[in-house]
Amino acid sequence: MIQSPTFADRPIAVIFSGGDAPGMNAFLRAVTRISLSRHHTPILGVRNGYGGLVEASKLDTYDLQKLVEERVGRWGMISDGQPLVLMDQPSVSGIVGKGGTILGTARCLEFHKPEVRARVVAMLEELGVRALIVCGGDGSLTGAELLTKESNLRIIGVPATIDNDLEFTEMALGVDSAVNTLVWAVDCFKDTARAHRRVMILETMGRGSGELARLAAIASGAEMVVTPDPKKPMTHADMEALALSIEAGMKAGRSHAIVLIAEGVRMEPEIKRNRAYVLADAFKEFFERPGGPFHDLEIRPSVLGHLQRGGHTSPQDCILAARFAEAALKEIMRPDGGNGITALRRGRIEIVPFGAPPLEDAEERSNASLHLHESLSSWEPL
Ligand code: F6P
């Protein structure tokens, strides 16, 4: 007989925080299924990021426990205002390849207050929670690190962000799916760019990191990629230099060009507008200059925005999610296991300490992808 999960089995709490990333649902499914089948330990899903923990900590622990044990799995998920849900097998059915996160995610300002975090820790201890897994990006893992310093809870972080800006791991969950989505988007833009002989400037997400844009440029065949340079902001003269190389390509017979620009490119003077629009204006000004050979060349900017975060989760991300889940549970179940973050390093999954330094070749890798893209792009007639 299948038993309903209860707090008596000392569940592991799982929270998704910050911007969603494809692979979060795959992770929830994997951690729930592996935990139930191999470790006979229930997973306690937290709704809406750290906000769910804060809401739960405001309730009477006895009432909360009763409510959560009564409404398990899908029933708990549809119960309005229930911040914690004991996950069962059916509750994670059919979600492996779906973007977003069924538990919800959020950025929670209240959690920045030490007294709020103390209340959350007390609640988790009273509920007998065995460990807390935090799945998210930079800010979420910083929140998790604070909890390791302020409590005796066992805490495991799982990197999930399309930005791929966590330099202790080669890949975070969501990057591969977002790259797949960008390749699909670039293909769509390419068709129309070629038909109209246009230059399409597409802005990608990624905060201060250019990794997503670089990977997408390599995989999609974009002619040009512009990513943040930590050493110097981009000037108008830099933009003209880029336009000049497109002009040279056009003179050689090229019909169109796809330019990817990362949202985090710093510009001088500082400009608050989307980077794609700023670059497009600079290109237009350049091509419309008196005596220029391509007066009529159309430059069309687009900001790709949140479509990069949603959609189908790639098989690669689903596999990485399962490997991260397995490693996180193994560490939690080890009697002398500690706190740490799951990381992909040289093809292996490891648990690295919070605050681990970047992989020694992190900078080298991003420079390498820029150089790789440079060697791949061609201005042959098309
Ligand atoms: O960190 C993930 C990310 O998608 C960034 O690439 C982007 O800058 C940001 O989140 C957007 O956040 P929001 O969804 O809050 O607008």
Structural class based on helices, strands and sheet pairing: alpha/beta
Low-pLDDT runs of 5+ residues are: none
Which CATH first-tier class of the largest domain would you pick? Alpha Beta
Label the overall shape.
Answer: elongated
Q: Span between N and C termini?
A: 65 Å
**Strand order across the biggest sheet?**
3-2-1-4-5-10-11
Output the helix-strand order.
EHEHHHEHEHEHEHEHEHEHEEH
Number of strands: 11
Q: What's the oligomerization state?
A: single chain
Please explain how this structure is put together.
The chain has 382 residues and is α/β, with parallel strands linked by helices. The protein folds into two domains: 7-173 and 313-345, Rossmann fold, CATH 3.40.50; 177-308, Rossmann fold (3-Layer(aba) Sandwich), CATH 3.40.50.460. It has helices at residues 24-39, 50-57, 61-70, 73-78, 114-126, 138-150, 175-196, 211-220, 236-251, 275-287, 315-333, 362-376, and strands at 12-16, 43-46, 84-87, 131-136, 154-159, 198-204, 224-226, 257-262, 298-303, 340-345, 348-352. It has a seven-stranded mixed β-sheet with strand order 3-2-1-4-5-10-11, with helices on both faces. A four-stranded parallel β-sheet has the order 7-8-6-9, sandwiched between helices. Helix 1 (24-39) packs across helix 11, helix 7 (175-196) packs across helix 8 (211-220) and helix 8 runs parallel beside helix 12. The longest helix has 22 residues, at 175-196. The mean pLDDT is 95. 6-O-phosphono-beta-D-fructofuranose (F6P) is lined by residues 19, 137, 161-163, 205-207, 263, 309.
